[in-house]
Backbone:
């Protein structure tokens, strides 16, 4: 059996965040005297509004980076469930979701103003609907093998996390664009972004390794 793919419909990308006002940008050097900056609230700190953007940034679920143990023992339902999961992870809904992800990335990069376009907002909403459909299809599989279910759950968790970040970034695009003038905000936001990217990448590695081991086990 060929190695199954993870079910993750989206991986957080620098392109999305950079286009929305995040990414590895540095705030421009101050052109005002320091006293004037302090009066405008843009000195060493950041405004309450920007602080809220940082504080409300979706948290990293620690489950994302937990190891997945795959034993040598086969379960009675394992082979059948593995095939069902593989079919779903490469099926039409998965392809539709990946296409929507690319569409959102393209729309974000094409933004001309701080306010997200109606088209972008509609695409993000549609991605949310696809996530719900994905959750329903995974639930309908009624996976009983604990190892396969863990791989499925972790893949879905990564997808949900990535969607939360995409949605949060789009919803706060205007604030983040304004925040580029604040070094403190950019440092904090870039730090949050790097940590989330690291967690999602590690989860992708863990899930991919577990999926490979499952495929090898049930191919024997």
Residues:
């Amino acid at each position: 059996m060929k190695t199954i793919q993870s079910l993750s419909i989206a991986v957080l990308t620098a392109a999305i965040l950079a286009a929305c006002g995040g990414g590895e940008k540095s705030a421009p050097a101050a052109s005002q005297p320091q006293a004037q900056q302090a009066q405008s609230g843009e000195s060493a700190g950041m405004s309450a509004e920007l602080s809220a953007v940082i504080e409300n940034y979706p948290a990293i679920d620690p489950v994302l980076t937990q190891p997945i143990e795959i034993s040598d023992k086969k379960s009675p339902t394992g082979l059948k469930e593995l095939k069902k999961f593989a079919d779903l992870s490469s099926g039409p809904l998965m392809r539709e979701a990946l296409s929507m992800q690319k569409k959102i990335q393209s729309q974000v990069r094409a933004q001309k103003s701080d306010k997200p376009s109606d088209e972008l907002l509609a695409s993000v909403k549609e991605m949310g609907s696809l996530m719900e459909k994905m959750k329903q299809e995974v639930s309908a599989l009624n996976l009983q093998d604990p190892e396969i279910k863990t791989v499925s759950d972790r893949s879905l968790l990564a997808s949900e996390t990535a969607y939360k970040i995409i949605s949060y970034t789009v919803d706060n695009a205007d604030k983040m664009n304004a925040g580029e003038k604040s070094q403190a905000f950019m440092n904090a936001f870039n730090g949050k972004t790097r940590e989330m990217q690291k967690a999602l990448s590690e989860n992708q590695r863990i899930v991919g390794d577990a999926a490979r081991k499952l495929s090898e086990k049930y191919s024997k």
Notes: The chain has nine helices and no strands. Confidence is low (pLDDT under 50) at residues 8-44. Residues 183-217 form the longest helix (35 residues).
